[in-house]
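[step 3/7] inverse_fold.run input=structure_tokens len=414
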């Protein structure tokens, strides 16, 4: 009797597995100007072929799922015109078969900060997160409040109208290959924007040239170790040295509306230039300023960024409310990330005991973790300080150890 029961249960289990309907791939999110473009892989198998798909959307950390397509989707792409600002959202997709449907396959949570509630928006890819963190630490220390996104889209048109500062950080942000991204920058400049662009040599595009008039010299690139501010500009008197050899820049202004503000000692081209045109201002950089060595007598990098914000009319020349500080070299990494039950947070370069705060997407601290320098790591179990599990979504971990700070973005999936 016992053997017969086991055989029956096995047959039932195998039958359920044999008739399990395949799920489509997780919906992948890309942004266009004013819309969300979704793509997923088809749900096909040797036994089943999907007739189409239904797409669902959830708003808020614990939001309900609602179907957003009107009729059955026969393609594996969809454009959602509804942009959710300042709230978490995510998408899920189901495959529809002749007599049934698959389980919901959910994508990663998304969050778009509201430009009207912050001072600056930093655009930088995750692969350049240490540099992005460095920029944000400086801007925050100078009294600004901002947020980071990995793409400028879907912000375009009037969406950035009230933003004080657009900061394009992380090396390699690929504006030239996206005409919509270039158009979004132009929209912002036309609203009297203030723009900082890192790696100007890789971001140049014909579309932007009318607004940011710079080009390239044809001279050879020569090695150099130092740069200096140009007389008569806001960088006058500044001088910086680099620990390793760099090669001369080839940026050059193409008309009087652009001006060289930092030169290398070879002076083949300029390191950094400024633009003042039709009510907007920009600073375009081409060298790794974060690697420069600070010198109290010839200017720290903090002084340079303070002067840039003064040029942008964001800080006044007599504003001493926020003295500012440069971040030391400390990093915070997370593994695994995304995570399900717990994540290991590891600190490098932190010499003192400190505290790791866990924050939700609104900036509210939900957990405080004590960090001991002797152990170099701490585990977050996905719970709040009250001991209750938090919802799936995007969170941020930040450590303060003495005068050093570092942060990392976390994704919790359940």
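[step 3/7] decode complete -> sequence:
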């Amino acid at each position: 009797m016992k053997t017969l029961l086991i055989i029956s249960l096995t047959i039932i289990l195998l039958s359920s597995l044999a008739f399990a309907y395949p799920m489509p791939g997780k919906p992948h999110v890309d942004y266009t100007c004013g819309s969300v473009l979704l793509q997923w892989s088809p749900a096909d198998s040797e036994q089943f072929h999907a007739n189409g798909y239904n797409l669902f959307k959830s708003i808020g950390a614990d939001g309900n799922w609602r179907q957003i397509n009107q009729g059955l989707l026969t393609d594996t792409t969809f454009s959602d015109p509804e942009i959710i600002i300042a709230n978490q959202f995510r998408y899920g997709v189901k495959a529809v078969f002749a007599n049934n449907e698959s389980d919901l396959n959910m994508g990663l949570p998304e969050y778009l900060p509201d430009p009207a509630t912050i001072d600056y928006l930093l655009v930088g890819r995750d692969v350049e997160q240490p540099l992005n963190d460095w920029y944000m630490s400086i801007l925050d220390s100078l009294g600004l409040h901002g947020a980071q996104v990995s793409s400028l889209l879907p912000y375009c048109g009037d969406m950035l109208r009230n933003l004080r500062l657009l900061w394009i950080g992380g090396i390699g942000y690929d504006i030239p290959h996206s005409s919509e991204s270039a158009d979004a920058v132009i929209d912002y400049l036309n609203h009297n924007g203030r723009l900082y662009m890192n790696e100007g040599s890789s971001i140049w595009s014909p579309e932007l040239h009318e607004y940011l008039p710079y080009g390239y010299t044809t001279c050879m690139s020569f090695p150099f170790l130092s740069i200096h501010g140009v007389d008569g500009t806001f960088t006058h008197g500044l001088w910086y040295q680099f620990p390793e050899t760099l090669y001369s820049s080839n940026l050059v202004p193409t008309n009087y509306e652009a001006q060289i503000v930092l030169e290398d000692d070879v002076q083949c081209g300029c390191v950094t230039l400024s633009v003042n045109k039709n009510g907007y201002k920009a600073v375009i950089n081409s060298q790794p300023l974060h690697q420069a060595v600070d010198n109290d007598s010839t200017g720290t990098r903090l002084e340079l960024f303070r002067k840039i914000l003064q040029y942008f009319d964001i800080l006044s020349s007599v504003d001493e409310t926020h003295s500012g500080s440069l971040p030391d070299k400390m990093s915070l990494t997370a593994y695994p990330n995304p995570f399900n039950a717990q994540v290991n947070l590891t600190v490098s370069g932190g010499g003192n005991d400190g505290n790791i705060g866990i924050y939700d997407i609104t900036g509210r601290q939900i957990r405080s973790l004590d960090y001991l320098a002797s152990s170099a790591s701490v585990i977050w179990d996905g719970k709040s300080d009250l001991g209750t599990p938090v919802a799936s979504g995007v969170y941020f971990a930040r450590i303060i150890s003495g005068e050093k700070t570092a942060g990392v973005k976390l994704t919790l999936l359940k």
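[step 4/7] annotate
Helices lie at 2-18, 129-141, 179-190, 200-203, 206-209, 301-311.
The radius of gyration is 26 Å.
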